[in-house]
Design goal:
The protein is an alpha+beta fold. The strands form eleven sheets. A five-stranded mixed sheet has the order 1-26-25-24-23, with no helix packed on it. Helix 2 packs antiparallel against helix 5 and helix 7 packs antiparallel against helix 8. It comes from Equus przewalskii. Keywords: Repeat, WD repeat. Pfam families: WD40. Belongs to the WD repeat WDR59 family.
């Protein structure tokens, strides 16, 4: 689709304002421009008839400003200046600072009023804290969210009153204000800094992120590992925000580049080219917001503020809005309108018993009475991601080259037969797909003859297959190929375990000796043995610091080598406790007979209660005679409490009984 170009409808210049931020109130009547010396209040219905000023005395520019989004509090707005938030009240043509919020220790990066509660305001800062304030009690924040890194953006969810999102460099964290101790979800969204966040106006779980890495990404935070879609751009993106109509998105470039001064309007269902370009600013756009739609009008207005010190308003008519619409959804709207014209069926009343019987006997019919709009959205989303939309398509796209697997598919019967051969084992399974698959309806798995694996292994495989299929169908994704790969992988792992057990010449089949201790013994000290990639710590080293000094660390002077220099260093941190407990024998012991190693290497070489230290692998304490005598004395008191010790000088003690 070719891009359309346009010029602004209204242009107002504020040459002396030096404003760095702009906001439009929820009623669409006023806009505030935030400068260092004054705040300018502009009447959007008559922008040329002058403006009002609110004086402010500060050496700091305003970082962010926003009107309260609730009609009853529409005369309040908040502005951030360095480490504080000023709450302004604008009424009857005059404004003043009502109160100030102070709590952050570093500069405030962003603020956002709550969508559902008019008294709540959230602020983010470089000091790594996100504060939620209640303007009825401004002494301290009501909720404090602590993150490791400073936050550059914070936005309330537009559909969930308890949910908000923050950006930290290239990452996004999803928070629940009822659980402030930690984020509920984490998205590694971009490789560069995120400049903008925006929640979808109609979906609780969808948000868009714009970044320095020249892209806008769309996310469902329930699937944090993979973005839904991506909009690649030529330059870093400063802001990307959804439109209040259809499926539009407006983007603007990073202000520091000074190469592109226009705004781009996109259709999120077709990101190949923008559907409209707003051209007119002579310098980069600092802020843009939508004005509330006037009663009786189908047109919207986009209000923009640029570094060229001009405020511009752009009219977005119904024809431009249709460019952001989805053709399929338009057809659905017409279909819903035609349904609404049909006569209503006669209403019947049922007792609870008959209702229960009706629900149980006609459950399949109720499944079909779903919202057609949601079904179309899911189909459109699946089509965008290149996923099969029918079972027949899934069968046609299945990879038939998976090793040791033969699949016989019957789309008419909505079933398939899977045969897997691995070593001496054979598995044959019947998979049946329900009519609603894959829309939150998992297939069923049943073993059929000839299947040679044990019943225990059957139960394990069934559990793995059910878990895998449920994870996929919850996202309305096909699951047959992932289940096949899991089946082959688990079966091969089972066969390999059997082969290793049968080929071990050191195993004692009828041994009465208790089994050797497992690695679980030392997990209390280091958590788990999943740290094979963590290198073994150093006990000495040196680095030059920024001031030009050489900083070094080494072992204490009271310690010396405990092992020979030729003794190999452990490969990972978890090997430390294994060496000390005897689970891993030193290299010189490994040269002994394999049978002796198997029988005796499990005996611990030191007490499990003794603290294992990293340096003790390399060094052991050099104990002086005095410290040895003191240690013996302490041990004597523990072992013989009926003895009393009397010091006779020079570190000597006399034992006396009583």
């Amino acid at each position: 689709m070719a891009a359309r170009w346009s010029s602004e409808n209204v242009v107002v210049e504020f040459r002396d304002s030096q404003a760095t931020a702009m906001s439009v109130d929820c009623l669409g009547q006023h806009a505030v421009l935030s400068g260092r010396r004054f705040l300018y209040i502009v009447n959007l219905d008559a922008p040329f008839e002058g403006h009002r000023k609110i004086s402010r005395q500060s050496k700091w520019d305003i970082g962010a400003v926003q009107w309260n989004p609730h009609d009853s509090f529409a005369h309040y707005f908040a502005a951030s200046s360095n480490q504080r938030i000023d709450l302004y009240k604008w009424k009857d043509g005059s404004g003043e600072v009502g109160t100030t919020l102070q709590g952050h220790t570093r500069v405030i990066s962003d603020l956002d009023w709550a969508v559902f509660e008019p008294d709540l305001l959230v602020t983010s800062s470089v000091d790594t804290y996100i504060y939620i304030w209640d303007i009825k009690d401004t002494r301290k924040p009501t909720v404090a969210l602590s993150a490791v890194a400073g936050a550059s953006q914070v936005k309330w969810n537009k559909k969930n009153a308890n949910c908000l999102a923050t950006s930290h460099d290239g990452d996004v964290r999803i928070w629940d204000k009822r659980k402030p101790s930690t984020a509920v979800e984490y998205l590694a969204a971009h490789l560069s800094k995120i400049h903008g966040l925006d929640w979808h106006p109609d979906s609780e779980h969808i948000l868009a992120t714009s970044s320095q890495d020249n892209s806008v990404k769309f996310w469902d935070y329930r699937q944090p590992r993979k973005y839904l879609n991506i909009l690649p751009c030529q330059v870093p993106v400063w802001k990307a925000r959804y439109t209040p109509f259809s499926n539009g998105l407006v983007t603007v470039m990073v202000p520091q580049l000074r190469r592109e001064n226009s705004l781009l309007l996109w259709n999120v269902f077709d990101l190949n080219t923008p559907v409209h370009t707003f051209v007119g600013h002579d310098d980069v756009v600092l802020e843009f917001q939508w004005r509330k739609q006037k009663e009786g009008s189908k047109d919207y207005q986009l209000v923009t503020w640029s570094r060229d010190q001009t405020l511009r308003m752009w009219r977005v008519d119904s024809q431009m809005q249709r460019l952001c619409a989805n053709d399929i959804l338009d057809g659905v709207d017409e279909f819903i309108e035609s349904i609404s014209l049909l006569p209503e069926p006669e209403k019947t009343f049922h007792t609870p018993d008959t209702d229960h019987q009706h629900n149980s006997s006609h459950g399949e019919e109720e499944v079909l009475k779903e919202d057609p709009l949601s079904n179309v959205l899911e189909e459109k989303k699946s089509d965008q991601l290149g996923l099969p939309q029918t079972l027949q398509q899934e069968f046609s796209l299945i990879n038939v080259q998976i090793r040791n697997v033969n699949v016989e598919m019957d789309a008419a019967d909505r079933s398939c037969t899977v045969s897997v051969h691995c070593s001496n084992h054979r598995v044959k399974m019947l998979v049946k797909f329900p009519a609603q698959y894959p829309n939150n309806a998992a297939p069923s798995f049943q073993f059929i003859n000839p299947t040679t694996i044990t019943s225990t292994m059957k139960a394990k495989l069934l559990k793995i297959l059910k878990d895998t299929s449920l994870q996929k169908v919850k996202r309305n994704q096909s699951c047959l190929e992932p289940c096949l790969r899991q089946l082959v992988s688990c079966l091969e792992s089972f066969v390999n375990q059997e082969d290793s057990a049968s080929s071990n010449p050191f195993a004692l089949p009828n041994s009465v000796t208790p089994p050797l201790p497992t690695f679980a013994r030392v997990t209390t000290a280091y958590g788990s043995y999943q740290d094979a990639n963590i290198p073994f710590p150093r006990t000495s080293g040196a680095r030059f610091c920024g001031a030009g000094y050489l900083v070094y660390f080494t072992r204490p002077m009271t310690m010396h080598r405990a092992v020979s220099p030729t003794e190999p260093t452990p490969r990972s941190l978890s090997a430390l406790s294994a060496y000390h407990t005897g689970l891993i024998a030193p290299m010189k012991i490994r040269t002994e007979a394999p049978g002796n190693l198997r029988l005796y290497s499990g005996s611990p070489t030191r007490s499990e209660k003794e603290q294992v230290s990293i340096s003790s692998f390399y060094y052991k304490e050099r104990m002086s005679p005095r410290s040895a005598r003191r240690r013996w004395s302490i041990q004597a008191i523990n072992d013989f409490p009926s003895l009393l010790m009397k010091s006779v000088g020079k570190g000597h003690f006399l034992l006396m009984g009583h």
